[in-house]
Amino acid sequence: xxxxLRAPSGGxxxxxxxxxxxxxxxxxxxxxxxxxxHQVRAAAARLDVWLRLGGYCVLRPDLRxxxxxxxxxxxxxxxxxxxxxPELEAMLRERLAGARPAMLACFSHPRTAGLLFALRCLPxxxxxxxxxxLRGWTRRAQRRGRRVDFRAGAxxxxxxxxxxxRRLRFAREWLELPARKIKRAHDELGALNDLAVLLELSRAxxxxxxxxxxxxxxxxxxxxxxxxxxxxxxxxxxxxxxxEISAGA
Length: 249
Hints:
single chain; 249 residues; mainly alpha; 10 helices; 75% helix; flat; disordered N terminus
């Protein structure tokens, strides 16, 4: 009989997101709904943060492997959802067809089954060590944010900040702390990264990009402008979440 360890009073169990992962793996395998792949990656990312909050080294490489296995498909799904030209769509769908078999092989691999079983065996986390970990992450994220030039800095720097923000967001969700404004900053930094990828692809196929309403948004020059505007939105969201980041950490 399968047993699931439940949190003692005040403890943090991983049940909810592990259940979420197991629920969406079959949806992702079917391939009818891109949300299935997205939710697999979202659940794996949150479980990785749970392990980090608990000071675990085990199973984190397995979760990264699982997320990476779904990463190429998810990246293409995101770009297709933004709306692209017929030429770029054809290129992306060809890449999608090539990426799906590798993802499906990852999902059906014994390593995935072993990961799910092992996660079920982990005890709930104590809150106080988790809060100490969050305080350290908060300080590092704030230092990273102070060094980033949102208006002209390299995209790699902004993507690095996004990883810090994502970790803070998920850690605070595990600890049931406010994270609404942090989520907004995470989303805005993610949108900036998506535009950068879209710009590179549009240059590669030398074709315009349109959104779902067929409004021109994607000649490379216009994408450059949109990226500049998105940097401003990311900076605004980062600035607005500072008080929330510090609260309760």
